[in-house]
Amino acid sequence: MILAVDTSGATGVAVVGDDGSVVAERVSDDPRGHAETIGPLLAEVLAAAAGRIDAVAYGVGPGPFTGLRVGMAAARAAALALGVPELPVLSHDAIALAAIEDGAPGRFAVVTDAKRREHHVTVYSGADASGLPVRAEQPAVVGEPPALPQAGGPVRPALVGRVAALRRRAGLPADPPEARYLRSPDVTLSSARRP
Amino acid sequence: MTGPLVLGIETSCDETGVGIVRGREVLANVIASSMEEQARYGGVVPEIAARAHLEAMGPALTQALDTAGVRLQDLDAIAVTAGPGLAGALMVGVGAAKGLATALGKPLYGVNHLVGHVAADLLSLPGSPRDGAVLPTIALLVSGGHTSLLAVDDLTSGIRLLGETLDDAAGEAFDKVARLLGLPYPGGPRIDAAAVDGDPAAIRFPRGLTAAKDRAAHRYDFSFSGLKTAVARHVEGEEAAGRAVALADTAASFREAVVDVLVTKALDACAETGVPRLLLGGGVVANRRLRDVALERAERAGVAVRIPPFELCTDNGAMIAGVGAMRVAAGFPPSDLGFGVDSTLPVDAVQV
Ligand SMILES: [Zn+2]
Questions:
Q1: What is the pLDDT of residues B18-52, one digit of tens each?
Q2: Between residues 124 and 153 of chain B, which touch chain A (CB distance below 8 Å)?
């Protein structure tokens, strides 16, 4: 079974079977509070998995950085603690898989809010033989989404797990483990901390 | 030595720290810093620090376990800095700690960074046993992120904030003044080097919040922004007069002003509370002049000064593990898994 974590939007954790079927899934709607919520949610789904986790999948974004990092840090640490491999997943792939399973036509774009009046956009050209979404264009920050049918969030953690499971079953490599920030860091200096 | 085996995670500023202690003995203390990446900006950029924490965390955890020769399964508990500090940076550590704790089924303690600096004095590095902290004590914690004066009666519940900086932290003042003087980041060591042959009495820079009128409201508080402005005015004045800035004298005089205020207020706290002990902590303790002046003036005042080994003075995971071990040993229950970070966590909250 695969533990899946995604905090590219809300805080979501899930456990899926080797075929991607959902064993347990918990999502908090709190758009902040990632650091708070990740603990109780992980404890709940791990109890449902009863010690049978053999990989940890996690969404690498794109999404708001501060929350995104909480889930990535937690998932990587959990993989280390369980002694199992990490299976990073582009978070947009989970939205794309949901769209495909809902019957999305050929070419479409996954569009999520990138703040500052911009969007995170990944363009897909459909599904491959294993039912996995095929990226036609890699994720980017754009002002105007392309003129294509759109799919949007939220990212379901169980589908992050399913993408990882289907990929693993098809013998396909996981995504690179780095966060998809897509923007250079804001270089505002810290002001004095006043403890 | 025996005691609980605790792994501690620290990510409150720009250092990713993972430490492992058994009771008061440090088994591993791995510190990865993003200082080099910050250098081009002349200070700590929170987003760069947070990105660096995420990448450094896995390797630091693995290295700490290897160094300590323990397995995660052997741990009695995990501890993590819950605050104070930079929120986005703290969240990386808390995320990692919750991932570890829930996957291992181990208790998790969210603890106070400043208490960690004080607890550092309890710890012993391998091969160099120390007698633990002598309490009560006054503690002066000075770094790039904080400047705090504490009264410590005991480490479980009795820490009181006497005063803190109202604007820049002392380490930050060093960074900013270094920039004014054309010196690179981090400013502390650069100003130290520049000040070697300087006359600390050459320029009388202001000592913030030491005037008689400040005594009532801010006896133990610090302010360094006026000092920074005074250095800027001095540099401008010299340049306007067509003179070259006397770098050594300016650096030495600035540093003297910072050190003078820090030591004067700390020893005033010792005298007022009748506690003849002063603990120094935080990265600025690396500053030789601060140590020398503190030791010299404390001796005259009959105050004993304690300074933990340098690697336990800068931000590190061992001190956080140390607080965790203390909480476990004293029988405190773990933190609720739903705790969050608190960038302004008060020092009397040892654990969240
Ligand atoms: Zn510190």
A1: 999 999 999 999 999 888 888 888 788 999 999 99
A2: 145-146, 148
Cβ atoms A20, A162 nearer than 8 A? yes
Distance (Å, rounded) from C-alpha B57 to C-alpha B36?
A: 17
The C-alpha of A166 sits at a distance from chain B's nearest C-alpha, in angstroms, of 24
Question: Cα separations (Å) of A42 from A31, A164, B80, B268, B350?
Answer: 17, 18, 17, 49, 25
Q: Please, which pLDDT band fits residue A194 given cuts at 50, 70 and 90? A: very low
B41 with A189: Cβ contact below 8 A:
yes
Residue B6: burial class (beta carbons within 10 Å; 0-12, 13-18, 19+): buried
Residues 168-187 of B with CB under 8 A from A: 168-169, 172
H helices of A29-111, where? 34-49, 65-82, 91-101
The reply to whether the predicted model has a pTM over 0.80 is yes
- The complex scores an ipTM of 0.96
Rounded to the nearest 10°, the torsion over CA A9, A18, B101, A176 is -60
CA distance A128 to A93: 13
List chain A residues with CB under 8 Å of B84. 193-195
Give Cα B18 to chain centroid, integer Å. 16
- Phi–psi pair at A172, nearest 5 degrees: -90, 145
The alpha carbon of B141 and the centre of ligand 1 are apart by a number of angstroms equal to: 8
DSSP B44: -
Chain A residues closer than 8 Å to B77 by CB: none
CA distance B207 to B223: 8
Instruction: Give the torsion sign (CA, A77, A82, A85, A87).
Output: negative
CB-proximal residues (5 Å) to ion ligand 1: B 143, 315
- Phi/psi-derived region of residue B45, left when phi > 0, alpha when psi is between -120 and 50, beta in every other case: beta
Q: Find the CB nearest B98 among A74, A185, A190.
A: A74
Tokens of B16: 């990713």
